[in-house]
Write a structure and sequence with these properties.
15 helices, single chain, alpha/beta
Length: 471
């Protein structure tokens, strides 16, 4: 992976921009917003997709495959800037060509900074729940008649997009703490959902990780909204010196306090704000999503919106892509996909699933994400899956930006199950799909979990269910 150079000066004026890896959910959203702003867009991706097709329909020039020649905009004009993500390999030919030509190379967060200039930025950071909470905020603001600009990590149900230009002074974005780029924005309201130490390949120490969150909060111009329940957030809270901090959660003393939670297809709760009580719907299952909704409500309150109005507007939220997303049903078995890729996220996702399936069972398909995370957290993943799922099928590691580590495969997770009967390590996707289908019976669910490309196995799972699976 490449380290973003956040000191790179951002051009005052950008007329043409090139995206390396334009087909990704985050990058494509920014590309659409650049098009909305009247900026000419080109880009490249390793394969075609519906996302690439939509960008082309809007006038973007997109090449399949990476090559230095792709930087030539309309055959003669070079881009004013090239946009990249940290997941890019350092030897990417377009990256090397841009640097050789002296074209500013901007991290995606710097491109977002361009789009958010002069706006009242609401930035959502945290280890888990960012995409869902960002989606809640966008839906809530739109329901209040505030057409906020936004960039989210997943498509927002009801809106059908992951980004929007907006015509108000509010701009909501999902901020990435993994590489420190969340410190780039001029934030008005900083929302911290939770703090679970991660990304030490960038920060080096847990203390440095916590310090970055404290800096993110203290730089907010208007307010900080932070969980009162999460241990990591409480730890960071001790270093926050901001004069206006709004807390949310179930603990006594929270400014937006959850006083009860009712679980089902949508988590519902009652929240107390300044002595008054309001009913709040998360729109999606899981106790953690009731907490996410409380965080969204606290943020809207920090923006000056009345709690009752905020609660009513948030009720329209219906989820985001790759967050317990239903993909189909065959012979009474529903197949879901979830982005969870950390033990705490897997726990939350499977616990939410448990709250909606009644007497059914959970068959999990786990794709480990990153070699380092698999090496360091294999036992934690195994413990969560064995405790919450009824059976787990483990695939091989999705390395993303990392080179393979000898001896690190999905087998590390499977081998750490206390009962080998609860798990199968099947790196062959067809065999994995058939095994999950053979285990499932009417009323069960199968759920794929990873932020890699595990969702691509779902057509094989649905087909295997139709055919009856293979034991």
């Amino acid at each position: 992976m490449i380290e973003p150079d956040l000191t790179q000066p951002i051009p005052e004026s950008i007329e043409r921009v090139h995206f390396i890896g334009i087909g990704g959910s985050g990058m494509s959203g920014i590309a659409h917003m650049m098009l909305d702003a009247g900026i000419a867009v080109s880009g490249s991706d390793r394969s075609g997709s519906a996302t690439v097709d939509r960008l082309r329909e809007r006038g973007a020039s997109v090449a399949i495959g990476h090559a230095a020649a792709n930087l030539a905009f309309e055959g003669e004009h070079r881009a004013d800037a090239v946009v990249v993500t940290s997941a890019l390999w350092p030897d990417n030919p377009e990256l090397l060509a841009a640097r050789e030509a002296g074209i500013p190379v901007l991290h995606r967060s710097q491109a977002l900074h361009v789009l958010a200039r002069g706006k009242r930025v609401v930035a959502v950071a945290g280890a888990h729940g960012k995409t869902t909470t960002t989606g809640m905020l966008v839906v809530g603001l739109h329901g209040l008649g505030i057409e906020a600009g936004f960039v989210n990590g997943g498509i927002i149900a009801g809106l059908g997009v992951s980004s929007g230009h907006g015509d108000s002074d509010v701009f909501v974005l999902e901020a990435d703490e993994s590489d420190g780029s969340f410190l780039l924005y001029d934030v008005a309201v900083a929302l911290i959902t939770n703090v679970d130490t991660d990304h030490l390949d960038h920060y080096g120490t847990p203390e440095a990780f916590d310090a970055a969150f404290a800096e993110f909060a203290n730089r907010a111009s208007e307010a900080v909204v932070i969980s009162i329940d999460d241990p990591g957030a409480r730890r960071v809270r001790e270093s926050i010196t901001h004069e206006r901090v709004v807390t949310f959660g179930e603990a006594e003393g929270a400014d937006v306090r959850i006083v009860d939670v009712r679980l089902g297809e949508s988590a519902e709760c009652t929240v107390e704000v300044a002595g008054a009580r309001f009913e709040l719907s998360a729109g999606v299952p899981g106790r953690h999503n009731a907490v996410n909704a409380a965080g969204a409500l606290a943020t809207l309150v920090a923006l000056g919106i009345a709690p009752a109005d905020a609660a009513r507007a948030l009720a329209a939220f219906r989820g985001t892509g790759r967050r317990f997303e239903l993909h189909g049903e065959r012979r009474g078995v529903r197949v879901f996909d979830d982005y969870a890729h950390h033990p705490a996220e897997v726990d939350a996702a499977l616990t939410a699933a448990r709250s909606v399936i009644g007497d059914g069972r959970i068959i999990a398909i786990h794709q480990p994400h990153l070699y380092t995370r698999t090496r360091d957290m294999a036992a934690d993943f195994a413990a969560v899956y064995e405790r919450v799922a009824d059976h787990t099928v483990v695939l091989d590691v999705y390395g993303a930006r990392e080179d393979p580590i000898p001896g690190v495969t999905g087998a590390l997770v499977a081998e750490r199950f206390a009962d080998p009967a609860d798990v199968d390590y099947l790196p062959d996707w067809q065999r994995a799909a058939e095994r999950a289908a053979a285990l499932a019976r009417e009323g069960d669910i199968i759920v794929t979990l990873s932020c890699g490309d595990v969702y691509r196995i779902i057509p094989q799972v649905l087909s295997a269910l139709e055919e009856g699976g293979e034991a």
